[in-house]
């Protein structure tokens, strides 16, 4: 996370009322926090491109872009997935509370602001966010590149390495990823099934692990060897056709005939026919032996 001072909690306050900002800023700075100020939604979005605060205090009603829309757009930035956004509003009716929570907020406080209450609520959400972030960093350290998406293919959470690899620093990749995942998930993949992401700068695949609470799809991101190089090595070493080398590559990656059929857009029966030729050319009798020879070939190449 990029912050001006990593030793202090960084708070972004988004409010069009100068007096309100001054009062809140004084209280936050007195509590030892660094305060970033945005007078309207677009300023908050501009700041977010360079700095990811630890927490955001968001005025709900502002001119041009209200707090609800600002919150939605901030949450489209993967760096803000763990950043709690607390709404400040004079509107305590159910409709506006629901709007704030649905747009990505975690809590709300009503105006006039009670600074002691705000600080207490902030500490709770900061603690939760830091625990979640630490858990995801631990998964990264253990080599578990996990993430979760909703039914629309939008990322709900991800480990830091997954964030980095999936976005490639390009916001267009996020939209492309959502489109690919949405289409894939509509086919209800089974545990262990994979989807190849060929639009990233480095080839990766996504493995389906499970559906949590009927709403959160748990996935694992995996690196795959560039098929052009790998299949060429297999083709040249064993005298395979292009399609046979494609099948053998995925056999070496532990895929079943059904999974290979999905990846290469062919029927499992066609995959099996290719396997018969692969076994004959490699002089082996089963897929385990074929995979072992392929892995050895790829390691040497």
TrEMBL record:
Name of protein: DNA-binding response regulator
Response regulatory domain mapped to chain residues: 10-126
Residue stretches making up the HTH luxR-type domain: 233-298
Sorted UniProt keywords: DNA-binding, Phosphoprotein, Transcription, Transcription regulation, Two-component regulatory system
Example GO BP: regulation of DNA-templated transcription
Residues modified as 4-aspartylphosphate: 59
GO molecular function: phosphorelay response regulator activity; transcription cis-regulatory region binding
GO cellular component terms attached to this protein's record: cytosol; protein-DNA complex
Pfam families, alphabetized: GerE, Response_reg
InterPro entries tied to this protein: CheY-like_superfamily (IPR011006), Sig_transdc_resp-reg_C-effctor (IPR016032), Sig_transdc_resp-reg_receiver (IPR001789), Tscrpt_reg_LuxR_C (IPR000792), WalR-like (IPR039420), WH-like_DNA-bd_sf (IPR036388)
Domain of life: Bacteria
């Amino acid at each position: 996370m990029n912050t001006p001072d990593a030793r202090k909690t960084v708070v972004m306050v988004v409010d069009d009322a100068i007096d309100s900002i001054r009062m809140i800023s004084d209280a936050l700075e007195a509590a030892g926090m660094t305060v970033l100020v945005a007078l309207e939604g677009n300023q908050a979005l501009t700041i977010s491109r360079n700095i990811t605060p630890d927490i955001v205090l968001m005025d709900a009603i502002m001119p041009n872009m209200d707090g609800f829309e600002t919150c939605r757009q901030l949450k489209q930035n993967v760096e803000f997935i763990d950043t709690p956004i607390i709404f400040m509003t004079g509107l305590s009716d159910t409709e506006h509370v629901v709007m704030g929570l649905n747009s990505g907020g975690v809590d709300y406080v009503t105006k006039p602001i009670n600074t002691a209450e705000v600080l207490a609520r902030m500490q709770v959400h900061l603690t939760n966010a830091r625990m979640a972030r630490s858990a995801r960093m631990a998964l990264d350290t253990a080599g578990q590149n996990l993430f979760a998406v909703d039914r629309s293919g939008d990322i709900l959470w991800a480990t830091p390495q997954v964030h980095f690899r999936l976005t490639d620093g390009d916001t267009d990749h996020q939209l492309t990823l959502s489109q690919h995942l949405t289409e894939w998930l509509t086919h209800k993949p089974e545990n262990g099934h994979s989807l190849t992401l060929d639009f990233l700068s480095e080839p990766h695949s996504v493995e389906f692990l499970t559906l949590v609470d009927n709403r959160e799809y748990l996935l694992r991101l995996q690196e795959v060897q560039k098929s052009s190089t790998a299949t060429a090595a297999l083709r040249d070493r064993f005298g395979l056709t292009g399609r046979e080398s494609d099948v053998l590559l995925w056999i070496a990656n532990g895929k079943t005939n059904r999974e290979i059929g999905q990846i290469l857009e062919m029927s499992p029966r066609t995959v099996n026919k290719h396997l018969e030729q692969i076994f004959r050319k490699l002089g082996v009798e089963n897929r385990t032996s074929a995979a072992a020879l392929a892995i050895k070939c790829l390691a040497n190449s």
